[in-house]
Queue: 2 jobs
Job 1
Amino acid sequence: MLHRVQQTARYLGSAGADDRHATETARILRQLGADEELVVAGILHDAAKPANTLLWHRVAGVLLDAAPRVRARLARGRSTFARYLDHARRGAEMARNDGASERVVRLIARHHQRPVTEDERLLARADREALP
Ligand SMILES: [Fe+2]
Ligand SMILES: [Fe+2]
């Protein structure tokens, strides 16, 4: 029992906010009529985002969309910022290694790019509406 409480406390302390974002994204997708695969993509889309991502990482990430080559260079390496910049690609790789379908892998890989399919539009909308 105590072990479970400690486990839960550690879980909420480290990944609580991200976990809420994942479940909220999935909930909104269900509400929008998404099928189970799209809901899975919603749960997993930010799985590779570092737990200690800071606000400036997100702001800089948006600004760097205007400079893709600089962005790509900064996304290499092990720093929190590099792993944040690369989280869509890394998350897609993790999902593929875990046996996710190509549709799910692709949705995760592209979730910070301009949506071009109906699936991508739905995920982008749920992602945005699920922001804390
Ligand atoms: Fe993301
Ligand atoms: Fe997200």
Job 2
Amino acid sequence: MAVYAIGDVHGCLPQLLTLLEAVRFRPGRDRLLFVGDLISRGPDSLGTIRFVRDQGERAVALMGNHELRAINGLLGFPEKGFLKHLGFLTTCPERDDILDWMRQRPLVHHEPELNLRLVHAGFHSGWSLDQAMDYACRLGVILRDEATLRAFLARYPANLPEIESSDMDETARLHFAMAVMTRLRICQPDGRVVWSIPGASGGAAFKLEPDSPYRPWHALLDWPGSERIVYGHWAIAGLSRNGRFIGLDSGCVYGGKLTAMRVDHPDLPITQVSCPAYVKPE
Ligand SMILES: [Mn+2]
């Protein structure tokens, strides 16, 4: 059995199938770990969901910000871009099944035997590993109960806090944790999260030049141990390895590459396939 971690697919099903052919994926035997953002922007989000769902237990797909955006939109809290990229879900015959499936996406996935943990975006340096897992677990409980989830989303702040503060209530802490695990890229050196860069918009703004005043989230995380942490969400940074931190989003939907890594044999070469530029980076 082989275990592959795969970067952000964003509905690029043809490239996913090409990638699996390239690694000689064996359905029913090998396992697939997707870092989230299976959907949105690319040509076949629905087909991608169906393909991954059809792998059953042999595929794990994390919650990405685009899965969360789909859930938000379907529950009546549409964010910018929902109708353009995910509006098809509202009239899709499988709408309810897909919504249920997306609500069950884990925020964090742990593979103890592989010394490996996956998250879509990242973890906050103010948390211990136990705190992060506690947040992920409690958010999973909220996601699975539709009434609780609606109440949680209705209070989701338009402007996210830069950091947890002592006067935040539990819901505000969980909002912050949800945003960190699905959207984090960079921080101030003191740990305050930079959710957007003034004067710049979209993911392309998060290209960190060597003289940048900001730090990648993983540069601030000082958790003990040697566990590898695999993440996605940072297309402009591309495939990146920084010690135990491995970023797999290589900008597939923007004309970059889709990446697969053998996490059970990390010494084997990483496999990538090229993708057409379906959309321009926003
Ligand atoms: Mn993302």
